[in-house]
Amino acid sequence: MPSHLGIRSSVKIVARNVLTWILRRLIVTILVVLIGLTLLFVATRISPRDPASELIGRITGYGGGLSGEELENMRRVVLQLYGLDKPIHEQYLDFLKGVLTWNFGPSLAFFPSQVQDIISRNIWWTILLMITTLVISWAAGILLGVLASYFERSRLSKAFLVLSSALYPLPYVILALVLFMIFSILIPIYKGVGGTGFVQPSLSWDFVLAVISRAWLPALSLIVLWIAMWFLTTYLLGLSLKREDYIFYAEVRGLSRGNIVLGYMGKNVLLPQITALILNLGNMFSGALVTEYMFSYPGLGYLMMLALQRADFNLLLGICSYSIVGVAVAGLILDTIYPLIDPRIRYGFKE
Amino acid sequence: MKPKLKAKHVAIIIFAFIIVYSFIISNFAPYDPTRWNTVPRDQPPSLKYPFGTTSLGQDLFWLCSLALKNSISMAVLTSTIGVVIALLLGIIAGYVRGRAFAAMTFIIDSFCVIPALPILVLIFSLIRESLSPLLIALWIAVFSWAWPSRYVRSVVLSLRERGFTYVARFSGYGLIDLIRYHYLPYIFGLIVMSFFNIMIWAIGIETTLAIFGLISLAEPTLGLIIFWAMNYQAIPRNIWWWVFFPTLLLILLCVSLYFILLDLYRKYVLGLSQ
Known about the structure:
The complex is a heterodimer.
Chain A: H1 7-46, H2 51-61, H3 68-82, H4 88-101, H5 115-150, H6 155-167, H7 172-186, H8 205-242, H9 245-252, H10 257-294, H11 300-309, H12 313-341
Helix pairs in contact in A: 1-4, 1-12, 5-8, 5-10, 6-8, 7-8, 7-10, 8-10, 9-10, 10-11, 10-12, 11-12
Chain B: H1 7-24, H2 60-95, H3 98-113, H4 116-126, H5 133-142, H6 146-160, H7 163-170, H8 175-211, H9 222-231, H10 240-268
């Protein structure tokens, strides 16, 4: 800030710049969401799968002879329900209107439930699982990584290094499968899959307990994999940090080890790891998808697979809208608070 | 000094075993391992059937051997396509300037953060009927090249400003020759590493999609064996070997590839020859 300006005008300039930046970032976010949604819409509409005939196929599969005319009537009603009988540009506008008003129409797989009712029933399972596992694995991985790189010669840190190097390249689906086999054949204590039924989400102990009894194994598998990932990246960062002069200086000054590890190395490792966290947000949804499918965990990923299997395009578009908006907003929030964490960050302000 | 057995040696030995088992031994199968009811069903591992048999009456030892071969071939195909795209786009992005540079950077960066798995799940379930091995490899490769491409770009960016680039240009080297004789030696290690990296990633993606039931091929892959095992409730019915052996092979494959990759990283990037 030029020194000849008064404090008040400096603050004004900063405030204006920050607002401009947030506005610009908001516009980019909206554009990204719009592009994502449009691609999604196009993908479902050019797909060779026909939701109406698949639904009718399922219904007639249960038996009951229907005449050709009845089938034709049924088909028309289904298409109308879906809004698929309109021209394509009207369908697109309807879809965008649906996203804006958060109303995605009826689901065909769970007829006659509305899509947003189904989603709001299942979304908390996913959110709870993802936030808990992400926070635990991120914090634990970074802490262990910093400690292991500071005490790089200790046997424990070497053991951790080998273990996480072996875990890191594994496809997540395989890790989940191995844990599932261990806890359902070797030590049969996981009874989460099937049987429990869906508990209505609420802020009661019953719901929390139901989530925990069902979620601990999916959570464990995600935590194991992600700890390995955050541990390895932190370890490498920590090794190069340890060679820095200021760490040496801190040691010579006789600072306590705890202070050096947490205050000097920990803080400096945190910054790139927050960047990595932002970059990985999109991949979190992949994690959710695999976990929920493998453990029949009643979240959004599981719903999405169901929607895909039954060509329920309304449900599919609804879930994907939630995910795209969720990831984009999370990225926006993290980006906005980033300069508060790292004062060196500049977003190209002009004076 | 005693020669010490290191992780990388173990990894190379395991990888060699995997190659022998998949590409050589699979040719000696006494019967078509994919055919149903060639052997008794649900036999646990024994001397006669080292890996046991499936509920469909297939011998897992020969089936896994063939499936491993297919999984590796598919990953190599994906990796080759991915590396070629990464190399081309990375070099172009590193070499061009101005608007084109910004556009290339935008494309590469977007592909870095796009979550590949949900999109592939979406695509594969919408076009499931028309998938062939080549098409599967191609689609997976579309999402594989972004990170390697970034590395290539950053190396080319730094090479571009070096003195020898100008000397070569002023001596009449064309772009192709410049890349071939002066840049490729720098990028070579990176390419090899990217190849292994994409391979590990592609094996994972292919397995995941197969377990999701989105890849239905006549040729078995390890993921498909697991898919069938789960479809026939192998874990609740305690036929653990049906899931265990393909899983074990996948773990060995991925981990040995990763340790070889780490060794390449030490050699090419950190410049340590040991």
